[in-house]
Amino acid sequence: MKPLIKPQETPEQVLTRVFKTQNYEEDADYVAIINHLTAYQKGGKHRNWDDYAEKIPQEIREKLELILGECSRNGFISPSVYNGGLFWTRIMTHRKMTDDLCTLCRRECNVRSDIDSGAEKLRRQNKIKNHEEYEEPKKCWEDV
Q: pTM to 2 decimals?
């Protein structure tokens, strides 16, 4: 199987960007995230993320949410801790790999909502019907 998404960033690049250092392993917030994920993993089969996440300080939760969202957008999900480091599951497919990061994106942007609502498809069809040149809207991740 092939990866579903051709990533714009690897999890390591996301972590470097979020923590603003290549030595993110030494950052106190990164260590706190590792400790929280380790504790969560030890909860066993009946663990509930929503209940556990309430115990995490808001600042750490916001960073973790950003990391999870950006990694997911790039096809990496379900981080686990092993030997003090983060390991990710990569979403795989039998189909052709795509470089459209909107596929798994959780960001709130007009492009995503227009795709979900069908407004962009209607706009494209009307332009083609009227023999006008259709230009696909710029994706929010193209500016990053």
A: 0.76
Structural domains counted in the chain? 2
10 Å Cβ neighbour count for 70?
A: 24
* 22 in the same domain as 75: yes
Check if the beta carbon of residue 127 is closer than 8 Å to that of residue 133.
Answer: yes
Would you say residue 61 lies in a domain? yes
The amino acid at 133:
E
Alpha-carbon span 103 to 135, nearest angstrom: 19
Range of the domain at 85: 2-93
- Segment 11-26, tens digit of pLDDT: 999 999 999 999 999 9
E-assigned strands of 13-108? 76-82, 85-90, 92-93
